[in-house]
Specification:
The chain is α+β, with helices and mostly antiparallel strands. Helices cover 21% and strands 29% of the residues. The protein has one domain: Archaeosine Trna-guanine Transglycosylase, Chain: A, domain 4 (Roll).
Length: 110
């Protein structure tokens, strides 16, 4: 969330969202799931999907410059292997599970 507010994040990985295509416009939100009764969605701004591709969660570790990719996820200085571990643990997935790598650009705030 803070990475999006600072516009430091330009890539996200999701175990899903396979329907996305370049050019799709989305509203980034603070918390889209698990809202308690009475809580409202906090909109962070509009983003446009630049590219999408399916790859294993651990593919980032084999990038020529994995540290650059982890920075695009909003985690500069984190090792790619640590990022994969965090991503998989948070989603109950394995490193060899397919993930949707979504690159996006910021449009404007609502």
């Amino acid at each position: 969330t803070e990475q999006v507010r600072a516009r430091a994040k330009t890539v996200t990985r999701r175990f899903g969202w396979w329907f996305l295509k370049p050019g799709d416009v989305l509203c980034a939100v603070e918390k889209g799931m698990g809202l308690k009764k009475g809580e409202k969605v906090v909109r962070l701004g509009l983003i446009r999907v630049v590219s999408v591709r399916r790859e294993s969660a651990s593919a980032i570790c084999r990038y020529a410059t994995p540290n650059v990719e982890v920075s695009k996820e909003g985690f500069p200085g984190m090792l790619a292997s640590a990022f994969v571990g965090m991503l998989c643990k948070a989603n109950g997935k394995a490193a060899d599970d397919d993930v949707n790598r979504i690159e996006f650009e910021y449009l404007h705030t609502p």
